[in-house]
Amino acid sequence: MVTRVIFLFIMNFLLLSCTVTSTQFDYLKSVVRSENENAPKKNWRMKWSGNEIDLFAVNLKDQIIFTNNNIFIYFMNDHIYKVEGILPNKSLIEIVSENDSLIYKVDGIAISQHNCTKIYEVESNDLKKFHQLCVDNQSKEEYKNQIHIDLNNMINKLYFKIHPNYPILELGIK
What we know:
Oligomer: single chain
Order of helices and strands: HHEEEEEEEEEEEEE
Number of strands: 13
CATH class: Mainly Beta
Strand content: over 45%
Structural class: alpha+beta
CATH architecture: Beta Barrel
Shape: globular
Helix content: 10-25%
Largest sheet: 12 strands, antiparallel, barrel
Strand order of the largest sheet: 1-2-3-4-5-6-7-8-10-11-12-13
Distance between the termini: 68 Å
CATH superfamily: YmcC-like
């Protein structure tokens, strides 16, 4: 018993009196820091209905998904076709492009139909702009969906109506 107490006393003294450095620990710490620096960044900003939320852009083969893991905005071809997690009740919004119409659905139920032009390019000096003019069949409200493409042929801004009772959604690179 006395031997055990003496051993613990000596070990305690040695541990408390020594400074330990570890190059392995410093290396691991630097790797973790550099991984965090190289992690994907939320480099897109959504502005909608008085809110600003930063999002990731996930580029897939045939579409882009803008997300922060709570909100999902799906863009394919020339329009936003689905939005999840943005409404107060988290309902699913679908925008179905059919001939010259956009049909707005919430949780699978059609709530509005809008007549729209085909998307067309607009003259601009510094970037390509594509517009689509639409009219709500019920309220006769007019609005413009837009896609802006920079000189590197990359989308840098989107303006789209995603729900007939809310303002235009804006997505842009921060």
